[in-house]
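Standup notes
- DV: blocked on the single-chain target, sequence here:
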Amino acid sequence: KGKGKGKGGGGKAPPPKAKSQAKAPPVEPRKPLVTPGVAVKRLFWNPIRLNHDGDTVWHEIDQEGALIDTAELEFLFAEKSRHAQDSSQKASAPAPRKLQVLGDIRRRSIFVMLAKLPPLPAVVEAVAEMSESALGRDELDLLLSNMPLPEEVDMLRTSHPAADLSAWDVAEQFSMLLIEVPRYELRLRVWGFECSYAEQLRDFSAAVAELAAGCEVMLRSGILKHLLGLALFAGNFLNGGTQRGRADGFALEALCQLRTVKTSQADRAETLVDYIVQQMERGHPGELAAALARGGEAEIVRSASRRKLADLAAEVKAWRAQAEAMQRSALACAGDPALARHAEVLGMCCAEVDALMMLVEQLRMRWQDLCKWFHIDFDGPAKKTTEEFFGIWSGYLGDVQQSMTALVAREQQRRRQASRKSRAGSSASAASGRRPSPEVASVSEDAARQCAQQKSRRTKALFRTIRCALALAFAPAGSEPDDLARAAAVPVPDDDDDDDD
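- DV (later): unblocked, structure below
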């Protein structure tokens, strides 16, 4: 398609192509020739050549000019000669490969650690002297996590026994210097135990205190007893006539199910927890607010639910055994003054841990009393842990708090609506201006008329009294009684007269 005919055909030859337009002559550079004094690095760009006249940013830059320090530019970006490059390459020939026996991951971990530590000789000296001023807890944690493993120690000591220390790579040098410190592992472990001792003791003591407070509040709080009693009475009523009714108590797991029992009324989306909260507010007003306040029963129970007595006792016991074992090992090194000094510190630590273990045992006995109080197994197959027990109560109190919050919100909304209705009714009555009914108007007019008549009679009597008094006070000497009577008989103002008269 689109081809011409064969050889014998009479097709015409295609017309010759038009010649391309002649290119414009190149514009000669306008700027003066600049030649650096030395070979410099080149900047590869596509230059723009402009005529003398024009209105571009390049023209303005050319008019303004710019002063640059060409000597500094020449110095900074001078191109090295081939001879200099060859000599530098010869000078920077790779040094002999250092000895390496550790794995890549292990080596990277040691490199990262060394970047966060003081110089290597200072680190080794601090470990030997167990100097608290040279290394802190963070540095000790890094050293403990990067201590050479037994198989690594064997490789370091047997792979190249005749090699000098400088022949090893940095990671291997650190390991070689560290294992040369006498009893380096015992030193680091004793030192690390002492650095973390105060914080660990504080954590254990806080756990014991929280569990002890939880046990005491469950044994002594009347508010929690009221909540449990309302749940029991409500459940017995709902289970009336069944085998589950008439219960003296119930398994505490049922407290978590109360929020799932919903009311049957379509206009009240409430649960059995809401009913119990309302009954608490009626029978024991203010108790729930106190229990849910900061530092109240709910917060104490929630804190206790995060602890496990069994795990706490086991951890304290293991901690005590660790301290005792390190103390014995340190005491066995009688000729080592640093370890002997820290052995005394470990002895004091063991004494404090013994006192903590006594508190844990007292807590265990208190937990046993609590299990007996709630009639649950302490040591049987159906026993509950402290985490389970306090977790159930924490969940129940959380449901109570949600219900209490909703109850308060509903009450506030009801009051706002009542207030708005009251204000709206008052405004409507004032704006309507309706007249009273005829009966009411008639009664009002009669009452007003009677009041006016009584006022008129009192006013007339008052005027008579005043006139008599004036006549007696200003009567001339020798006046007859008849004259005084006529003077007092002054007309009294009628009701229609103005009050000012």
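- Follow-up: Residues 184 and 430 are 94 Å apart (CA to CA).
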